[in-house]
Amino acid sequence: MDKLQELTQKLYQEGLSKGKEEGQAIVEAAKKEAEAIVKKAKEDAQAILDKAAKDAESHRVKVEGDLKLASQEALQATRSAIENLVVASAVDKPVKDALSEEKFVKEVISAVAAKFSAQESADLSLILPESLKAALEPFVKGELSKLVGKGVEATFSKKIGAGFKIGPKDGSYFISLTDEAFTALIGEYLRPATKALLFGE
Q1: Secondary structure of the chain: what % helix, strand, coil (to 5)?
Q2: Model pTM greater than 0.85?
């Protein structure tokens, strides 16, 4: 009986010891696995934070670039609008007034037609403002035809506010010397001076 009890006790002790060892090994393995999981989770979280920070910086740089470009474009558009307004106010009315004045228009037409007829063998065609028909029709048929030594045909249009268009009678092309053309031409000469005056450039 004592031997049986001793054997039973021994088996119990061995089993208990082995169970404790295995349990301890399982606990250690679980701890290591848990540590590895926590470590990986921290690394993944840090990688996500790093990517988010990088993306945020990239977005900030892009937004700043877009805002800078937009502000430059807005500034340039505003400056151009101011420049156009100043040039227009300085040029539009004087040009329109001058090209609506009978004497001045006759002088310009005579100078251009004389130059034109020296280079072109064809008869001339003029398109003039309807508002100056009474004053210019006799001039074109009389003085101007004599001056250029060839036929000159004149038509009058409400589409031309001031100035005129000139070209060969066959209508192959016209040179525009209207108020819009003069305004654009004079405006181009004035723009650099206007820009320097307004913006110090």
Answers
A1: 75, 10, 10
A2: no
Residues 6+ away with beta carbon under 8 Å from 100: 129, 131, 132, 161, 162
Q: What is the pLDDT of residue 129?
A: 87
The secondary structure of 4-21 as a DSSP string is: HHHHHHHHHHHHHHHHHH
pLDDT the model gives residue 71: 58
- What are the angstrom distances between the C-alpha of 44 and each of 13, 31, 108? 46, 20, 82
CATH number at residue 135: 3.30.2320.30
The pLDDT, as a whole number, for residue 31 is: 77
Structure tokens at 128: 């003039």
Amino acid (one-letter) located at 186: I
Query: Does 36 score more than 60 pLDDT?
Result: yes
Look at the chain and report how many structural domains it folds into: 1
* 157: in domain: yes
Beta bridge mates, 167? 125
Mean local confidence (pLDDT), 167-184: 77
